[in-house]
Amino acid sequence: MRYASAQATGRKLCDWKEYMHCRFLYSWVVLTVSVSLLAWSQGAKNGGDFSDNLQPKTKVPTGVILVKGAWSSASDSVTPLPEGGNVTNNIFSNHYFGMTYALPPDWTEKYKGPPPSDSGRYVLAQLRPADTYKGPTRGSILITAQDMFFTPLPATNALELINYSKDNLSANNKVELPPAQTTIAGRSFAFFAYWSPVAQLHWYILATQIRCHTVEFVLTSRDTKLLESLVLDMNKMKLPAKASPTAGTGGGAVPVCIKDYARDENVIARVDPVFTEHRFNPVPVRIIIDREGKVKHIHFLSAFPDQAKAITDAMGKWKFRLYLRDKQPVEVETGIMFGRAPFPTTPSARGPAIE
Predict the structure, then answer these.
(1) pLDDT in tens, 225-234
(2) Could you state, in order of their start, the residue ranges of all structural domains in the chain?
(3) Could you confirm whether domain 254-349 is CATH 3.40.630?
(4) Residues 104 and 230: beta-carbon distance below 8 Å
(5) pLDDT tens track for 325-355
(6) C-alpha angle with apex 21: 18 to 25, nearest 5 degrees?
(7) Where are the beta strands (DSSP E) in the chain?
(8) What is the DSSP code (8-state) at residue 57?
(9) Range 77-248 classified under CATH 3.40.1000.10
(10) By CB count within 10 A, which of 63, 89, 202, 321 is most buried?
């Protein structure tokens, strides 16, 4: 009897535990569903994924960067910058490089390029056929520039950069025309072509050097006849007289560009920038030194606003030795890498580390 009574008592205890467990699960499910429905209804009212409300109360502002990181900037708004080119009335012009290029008929620029990279790579223009284009085949024109002060590649001029590109093609691409020098718009260019047998795409690369930048025209299409006509159209361009794949170091109306001019032996006085925040990004800087040895212009390829201000304040106190041509001082353009360089650089040309 005692055993039977104990069994009955045990069953009641088990039933009570199961009952309480079920009640707990039920309450948890009801709470979860209620919260989900509340979130769904709020999202629906405010233009969520399941909303039919086309005018939500909260909108993300258009044309605004909500969280801005390192960016390109300059110490003044007057001096032309490499990234300052634009397309107006179907003509691409860039005052920094002194070039104008008339787009082919019914071609357009739909999207602007990104800001310069911390290795000095620029997308100057991305051109493509417009909706009105009636040609049998389509293609694209990409105009880029590589700052030779900051390139991580083992090249010192446009010709060497073209040869490096040829020697490092992916296995899927084949050289179609080996590197050679040609003349475009009365200026010397380095040229080579390659193609992809799998994608049936052809690339024509034309490069010259202007102000210590390799300026490249990358023409892409499946139709080589279209590419040949695009190359012929490039003869309408206007370029500086000193443009050349092995020279292009400025002078005349623009500063002479000299890599690593900010070496210790050329700096008479300097003040290191004082940074208020610890950051670990590279800050590539191009400066123009006037005929009195003072810094007249600073171009930050990539920097946080506080870094740009600290460097600007410090470089206002720098003094350089004069650079002479024909016994006359001339303006000099050079580069300095502040912070932690993304690749090895000449130690004497580096600024203080940003930590």
Answers:
(1) 999 999 999 9
(2) 1-59, 77-248, 254-349
(3) no
(4) yes
(5) 999 999 999 999 998 776 654 443 444 444 3
(6) 135
(7) 71-74, 86-88, 91-94, 99-102, 107-109, 121-129, 139-147, 174-184, 187-196, 201-210, 213-221, 250-251, 254-257, 267-269, 282-289, 295-303, 319-320, 323-325, 328-330, 332-339
(8) S
(9) yes
(10) 202
